[in-house]
Specification:
The chain is about 50% helix and about 10% strand. By secondary structure, it is mainly alpha-helical.
Length: about 130
């Protein structure tokens, strides 16, 4: 689904009594994204369309475990159980379980992320692109 779902999402947050815990910020300027990521406990992108998203690297650089769907090239970036968790698209229960697991195993995932440099990640991305092009 695409489009503005803000009314439906706001209604759901109110119905679940989560207004104290959920805030919809709208578009965030690029130079402020790191502030939001650093204030988070996990990063989740339950997408059907976006594979190999740069935002995964940004979240990992802020020390966040990444949870996303096992589509397109996501498994090449998010190594299940190492730097994040992969779930089947559309499986709400698996997504909820992954978020819970990420919250309880966050320290191990953060340690993995901290052990990786930008140069190492850039080299791996470069190697993957070379494999694809050859």
């Amino acid at each position: 689904m695409e489009g503005d779902m803000s009314a439906s999402l706001n209604e759901q947050v109110q119905k679940l009594g989560l207004t104290e815990h959920v805030r919809f910020t709208g578009e965030i300027p690029h130079n402020k994204v790191n502030e939001f990521l650093c204030a988070s406990d996990v990063f989740a992108l339950a997408t059907h369309f976006e594979g190999w998203a740069n935002v995964f690297f940004e979240a990992m650089a802020c020390g966040l475990p990444v949870i996303t769907t096992d589509i397109c090239g996501n498994a090449e970036v998010v190594r299940n159980g190492e730097n994040g968790l992969l779930v089947p698209f559309g499986n709400r229960e698996a997504l909820a379980d992954a978020i819970d697991k990420a919250l309880t195993t966050r320290e191990a995932i953060i340690n993995y992320a901290h052990g990786r440099t930008w140069e190492q990640v850039a080299d791996e991305v470069y190697e993957q692109f070379n494999k694809i092009l050859s």
